[in-house]
Amino acid sequence: QRHLLGIEHLAPAEITAILDLADDYAALNRRADKHGDALRGLTQINMFFENSTRTQASFELAGKRLGADVMNMSMQTSSVKKGETLIDTAMTLNAMHPDLLVVRHPSSGAVDLLAQKVNCAVLNAGDGRHEHPTQALLDALTIRRAKGRLHRLNVAICGDIAHSRVARSNILLLNRMESRIRLIGPPTLMPAGVADLGCEVYGDMAEGLKDVDVVMMLRLQKERMDGGFIPSEREYYHRYGLDAEKLALAKPDAIVMHPGPMNRGVEIDGTLADDINRSVIQDQVEMGVAVRMAAMDLLARNLRDRRAA
Ligand code: CP
After folding, report:
1. Are 105 and 111 in contact (CB under 8 A)?
2. Is the Cβ atom of 285 under 6 angstroms away from ligand 1?
3. Please, which pLDDT band fits residue 227 given cuts at 50, 70 and 90?
4. Is the CB of 164 under 6 A from ligand 1?
5. 149 torsion bin: left (phi>0), alpha (psi -120 to 50), beta (else)
C-alpha cells in the first residue's frame, strides 16, 4: 500500500502483517533502549486539525523511536487560521519534501483528498465519521494479545455507533478477520444502513452483552451530533453505561475496551475502567505506539521501493 487511509483498503493478510510487526515493536518498546532505525533519514509531519491526546502523542513517539525527523504542525497557529485551505496547506508542506504525512481532520474524506495531491505516504489519523484505521489496528492487536486470536470471537461495540469512525474501522476490520460483531445502542445512535454492516444489532445491553468475549465502549460524540438528539447523560448511563452488573452478563473473562477519551459515569463506570483484571484500556494506549511504528515502517519500505524503481 502507498497510504494508510482506511481499513476498507486492507486485505486480511495485510492486517495480519501489520499486527505481527507491531507485536515486535511492542517488545522493543518495553526495552530500556527503545530505538530502531526503520525511519532514519525520513521526515514525518503530523497535521492535526482536530484535538488529540493518544493518536498525536503515539505517532510522534513512534516516529522518533524509529529515527524519523518529526515535526508537529500546530494548526491553531498555522495560516489555516488566515483562511488557507487544507489542500494549499498540504501542497505547501509537500514542497518541503516530507516522506510521511499524518493527518486528522473533522471532515470525512478530507484525508483521501489530500493523499491524491501529495507525493509522500499519508496516514489517516481520523477523518470525521469515516475511518480511524490505526485505532482499529491497535484494538485488534490488543484483542489478539488478550485472547490469542481474532476469529470466532464475539465482540460487542456499544454506544454511539452512528458518529464513530472508531466503530466504522473496527467493524470493517473485525468482519474481515472473521470475528462476530454485535452493535448495542439506542436506535437514534445507530448509523443509516446498519442492517447491511454484517453485524447483529441490539437495543438492549442485557441481551447484547450475553456471553461476549470483548466489550468495546464508545464515547457520546456530541461534537458530531449536528444539533440532533442528544440523550440525557444520566438516562444514558442507566441504560447503556457499562458497570459491573452489566459486565456480569458477558463471559467471565471478557475484556473491557475504550478508545478514549472516556467520559466516566456516562458510557463507563470509572472503577471498572481502572480494574486491571478486566480493563485493557491502558494496553490499547501501549499498543497504539507499536501499531503506528509498524504502519509507518511498512509504508516507508514501500516508499523506498518505489523511489528505487
Ligand atoms: N482514540 C483516540 O483517537 O484518541 P485521541 O482523540 O486522544 O487521539
Report:
1. yes
2. no
3. low
4. no
5. beta
262 lines ligand 1 (CB under 6 A): no
Instruction: State mean pLDDT over 261-284.
Output: 97
Residue nearest to atom 4 of ligand 1 (CA): 54
C-alpha cell read off for 280 = 485493557
Give the mean pLDDT of 159-171: 97
DSSP string of 8-34, one letter each residue: GG--HHHHHHHHHHHHHHHHHTTSSS-
Angle 46-136-204 from CA coordinates, rounded to 5°: 130
- pLDDT the model gives residue 54: 98
All three cell numbers of 109, joined, read 474524506
Q: Is the CB of 259 under 6 A from ligand 1?
A: yes
Using DSSP, state whether 259 is helix, strand or coil. Answer: coil
* CA–CA separation, 7 and 64 (whole Å): 25
Which protein residue's CA is at the shortest distance from atom 6 of ligand 1? Answer: 52
pLDDT, residue 229, reads 66
Tens digit of each residue's pLDDT (9 = 90 or more) over 204-221: 999 999 999 999 999 998
pTM of this structure:
0.97
ipTM for the predicted complex comes to 0.97
Nearest protein Cα to ligand 1, atom 5 = 52
Asked if 143 and 281 touch (Cβ cutoff 8 Å), the reply is no
